[in-house]
Design brief:
Elements (H helix, E strand, L loop, with lengths): L7 H13 L7 H10 L7 H12 L6 H12 L10 H14 L9 H15 L8 H12 L7 E9 L5 E2 L1 H8 L11 E8 L2 E6 L5 H18 L2 E6 L3 E3 L9 H11 L9 H16 L5 E5 L8 H13 L3 E5 L13 H6 L5 E3 L4 H13 L13
Parallel strand pairs: 4-5, 4-7, 7-8, 8-9
Antiparallel strand pairs: 1-3, 2-3, 5-6
Helix pairs in contact: 1-2, 2-3, 3-7, 5-6, 7-9, 9-10, 11-12
């Protein structure tokens, strides 16, 4: 699709109407909208719709407003450079779903077509996405649902159905005027959320995958809270504080500003050694599930990586290694770094698509609360 040559006034007016209808747009939004539809890689009016929506919409409740104003401006193919009438028909199921409207039997085929776009996008490798698809993927990642795994705490709580006598409460009842020896108080172990520890490779070979994963990590941290996050290339950097920013775009900007070796080389073993020596005792209390995102390319010595990964695995409940390459047909962990780490990880998991990230959530939720014997099982 050739670059769109429309007057900027179209996007200024579109932004003004969004603001009138209650969307929190700013003057810069019009310039961002124009840049979005002129970005390379857009192949259709459907891409234009998703690119503009990714720029303008920040909250789920704003989706309906955006769709209404979009149809007002571009409905019936008024500006075919943006979207044709045929493409608008294809977008109708997506717009109705955003408005909370159900499709009737006559619209069932259209609804399936709209759902299939999201399904196709969920299985597309992040490296192969157009700019518009990448913008929509970021939105889909932010809307993922998370449920943390629970572990048994060392603390106990009163529980009528518990299996252990609560001797302290029994004795306390006996000291009261009406204390009765026959009343048996019971207790059970408390449940607590199991924390997450994330170590993400930001070397040059991982750039797009890491960006997607950090959007994913931002969404996890916002919903679960107990998440510690580090990135590494040739050195280790803690970014937990930067990811507390509510806006994911601002959060990732802060991360990139504060990480000096972004897109550099990789020394995984040495950065793991730094974590084990400086951070492990501070952030591994409670037996976290550890996620390592890396393709395994390492400039350091395999022996160093093996020893450091072994020590890391002993300090956490479970160690999952997320390798974007591992989902490809015929993949074998043949890099020196991957072979060195393999004996000490619990799962080798792909992380190249939205579907992969969803599977990681399910995997985390399925991990038992008790310790299990380690054996590497590719997911």
């Amino acid at each position: 699709m050739t670059a769109i040559a429309l007057p900027a006034e179209v996007f200024v007016e579109f932004t003004r109407r969004l603001r009138e209808e209650g969307l929190r747009s700013v003057p810069e939004t019009s310039a961002d909208l124009l840049a979005a539809v002129q970005a390379p890689g857009l192949s259709s009016g459907i891409d234009n719709y998703y690119a503009m929506r990714a720029v303008a919409v920040r909250r789920p409740e704003e989706m309906d407003i955006f769709n209404t104003v979009f149809m007002e401006f571009f409905g019936s193919g008024k500006i075919p450079e943006i979207v044709t009438e045929e493409q608008l028909i294809e977008l109708q199921p997506t717009m109705r779903a955003a408005a909370g409207e159900g499709a009737d039997d006559d619209d069932e085929a259209e609804a399936e077509a709209g759902a299939s776009y999201a399904e196709r996008l969920a299985h597309r490798d992040f490296l192969e996405m157009s700019d518009a698809e990448w913008a929509e993927a970021q939105r889909m990642i932010q809307q993922m649902r998370f449920q943390s795994t629970e572990a048994l705490s060392h603390r106990w709580r009163p529980d009528r159905r518990g299996k252990r006598p609560d001797l302290r409460r029994v004795l306390r009842n006996m000291t009261r005027p009406d204390g009765e020896l026959l009343r048996l108080e019971l207790q059970s172990r408390k449940h607590r959320r199991r924390p997450l520890l994330i170590l993400a490779d930001v070397s040059g070979s991982m750039e797009r995958y890491t960006e997607a994963f950090l959007y994913f990590t931002h969404a996890i941290r916002r919903r679960l809270g107990r998440v510690e996050v580090f990135v590494f290339s040739t050195r280790l950097t803690r970014i937990t504080r930067e990811l507390t920013h509510q806006d994911p775009y601002q959060a990732l900007t802060l991360v990139s500003d504060n990480v000096e070796d972004w897109s550099g080389g990789t020394r995984i073993g040495e950065t793991f050694e730094t974590f084990n020596r400086v951070w492990s005792r501070r952030v591994t209390r409670g037996g976290p599930i550890c996620l390592v995102l890396s393709d395994g390319w390492d400039c350091g010595e395999p022996e160093t990586l093996a020893a450091a990964t072994s020590q890391l695995s002993r300090s956490v409940h479970s160690l999952l290694w997320l390798n974007p390459l591992s989902g490809r047909e015929g993949y074998q962990p043949s890099t020196r770094g991957m072979r060195a780490a393999l004996p000490f990880i619990d799962q080798l998991v792909p992380a190249a698509t939205i579907h992969d990230l969803s599977s990681i959530i399910q995997l985390i939720e399925s991990i038992p609360s008790h310790a299990v014997a380690r054996s590497v099982r590719p997911a």
